[in-house]
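Re: weekly structure request thread

Next one in the queue (142 aa):
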Amino acid sequence: MSRTIFGVDWSPFWHDAMDLWHDYGLKVQMHCCGGYEPLVPTLIDAGLDALHAVQPSCRGMDLQALKENYGDRMVFNGAIDSQHTLIEGDPAIVREDTREVLEIMKPGGSYIAGASHDWVLEETPVENVVVMADAVREFGEY
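Done, posted below.
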């Protein structure tokens, strides 16, 4: 499957990059931000192993659809909302949101639990980070 970005077909580049890393016996995870769902089929075709970070608040990043459409071919990393839930939520909301994300993303083992950004943003209350980690431990074991 070939998709263009700004009129350029990036598929050959992605194929070459994935092949290089795989030749070294490595798995490849790429960091993307935003609503990148339209690129997922091309990245899978190129051989990408995992995508970080899933931002469920962005257009097209419905967790259930991502898991159903690509979860058997792609590992997703992230999805616990670092922009709203972790910063603005109270501990009960953080725990429940983390549980809901894990309920959707965990089946099949193609998910790495984490925040929907690189990690957590500096304005995130430490208590919410601890609650998220505790909830991952409670609900996230395979």
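Helices lie at 11-23, 40-46, 63-70, 85-88, 91-105, 126-139. The CA atoms of residues 6 and 48 lie 21 Å apart.
Next request, please.
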